[in-house]
Amino acid sequence: MKISISEAKAKLSALVNAALAGEQVILTKHGRPVAEIRPFAAKKSPAEKLSAIQRIAARSKTKRLSGVSAAEADNFLYDDDTGLP
Questions:
Q1: Phi then psi for 13, rounded to 5 degrees?
Q2: How many CA atoms lie within 13 A of 40 on its CB side?
Q3: CB of 39 closer than 8 Å to CB of 20
Q4: CA 40 to CA 51: how far, in whole Å?
Q5: Which regions of 1-85 does DSSP assign to beta strands (E)?
Q6: What does the alpha-carbon distance between residue 20 and residue 28 come to, in Å, rounded to a whole number?
Q7: Are 27 and 16 in contact (CB under 8 A)?
Q8: Predicted model pTM
Q9: Whose CA is closest to 15, among 41, 40, 23?
Q10: In whole angstroms, what separates CA 17 from the centre of its chain?
């Protein structure tokens, strides 16, 4: 639903309840959308963040790209005697 800011002042409680029920509430100024009322998304706890980091790290270990490593690439780029190409 779109509603002007001036109209929203009188209906704020009802608009918040509508947003909590899943309805999109957009505030307008001179007919143009300027803000949105939506439910607050709670921040993740440190334990939840750590768990997400651990899942990402575990997935990254299983997705190793094939090819030579950086250490092996040196052997192709530089001469062993001089260290120059």
A1: -60, -45
A2: 4
A3: yes
A4: 22
A5: 2-4, 25-29, 32-37
A6: 19
A7: no
A8: 0.50
A9: 23
A10: 26
Residue 65's pLDDT band (boundaries 50, 70, 90)?
A: low
Question: Residue 33 in 3-state DSSP?
Answer: strand
What is the per-residue pLDDT across 1-47, written as a single tens digit (0 to 9) for each?
Answer: 999 999 999 999 999 999 999 999 999 999 999 999 999 887 888 99
Tokens linked to 71: 């250490």
Neighbours of 8 (CB within 10 A): 17
**Which residue, chain included where needed, has tokens 């999109």?**
24
Residue with tokens 């299983």: 62
Residue 50, CB half-sphere, CA atoms under 13 Å: how many?
A: 3
Q: Domain map of the chain by residue range?
A: 2-37
Cα angle 57, 73, 67; round to 5? 55
